[in-house]
Amino acid sequence: MTEIAHFIDNARVAGTSGRSLPVFNPATGATEKTVALASPADVDRAVASAAWPTWAKTPPMRRPPKVGPTCPPATGVRELWNSPA
Question: Which has the least CB within 10 A, 44, 45, 70, 78?
Answer without folding.
Answer: 70
